[in-house]
Specification:
Blueprint (H helix, E strand, L loop, with lengths): L11 E4 L7 E4 L1 H5 L1 H12 L9 E5 L2 H13 L2 E5 L9 E8 L2 E8 L8 E9 L3 H12 L3 E10 L14 E6 L1
Length: about 170
């Protein structure tokens, strides 16, 4: 039953957040609904169910919410990809360019192995910079990046192009 829900109806538009001119897609109503949240997680996992995923990597912070649940459904481990200074062990880092400045993502050195089959999960694919940085980190390990899944894709920003040949799924497109 939950899988037939129109998830788009659980996304709230918030004008001028975090700054004027931005129409923010708020996922908290979806998270609040057990049915919608469950359907979203199931739908994110479904395209990859037969892919023998060994670990799901997810981007801080809302990606963790979905990624850990998808990992559980797929019987896979979970790997956090974090902002700088949050991981306690030796790590790899990838800096990337934002519209005004730079940012970075980090992952533990021992988080992924060459034999892993990895799925990347995040809540939103926008310009693609963060997702591209995460995929580059995953590929550094020599692992197989099976694909990337997103709850929402802001298709007009063309972020999918930055992921190149990575199989990319999104549940809701704007």
């Amino acid at each position: 039953m939950a899988a037939t829900l129109d998830l788009r109806t659980f996304i709230r538009d918030v004008p001028d957040f975090p700054k004027p001119g931005i129409l923010f897609k708020d996922i908290t109503p979806l998270l609040r609904s057990a049915d919608a949240f469950g359907a979203g997680v199931e739908q994110l996992a479904a395209p990859f169910a037969s892919e023998r995923i060994s670990c799901v990597a997810a981007i801080e912070s809302r990606g963790f919410i979905f990624g850990s649940c998808v990992a559980r459904i797929l019987g896979a481990g979970f790997v956090p990809i974090r902002k700088p200074g949050k991981l306690p062990w030796t790590k790899r880092r990838n800096e990337y360019i934002l519209e005004y400045g730079t940012d970075a993502l980090e992952i533990h050195d021992d988080a992924i192995t060459e034999s892993d089959r990895v799925l990347l999960i995040d809540d939103v694919l926008a310009t693609g910079g963060t997702a591209a940085a995460a995929t580059a980190l995953i590929k550094e390990f020599g692992a197989t990046l099976v694909g990337a899944g997103f709850l929402i894709e802001l298709a007009f920003l063309e972020g999918r192009r930055k992921l190149g040949d990575v199989t990319t799924q999104s549940l809701i497109q704007y």
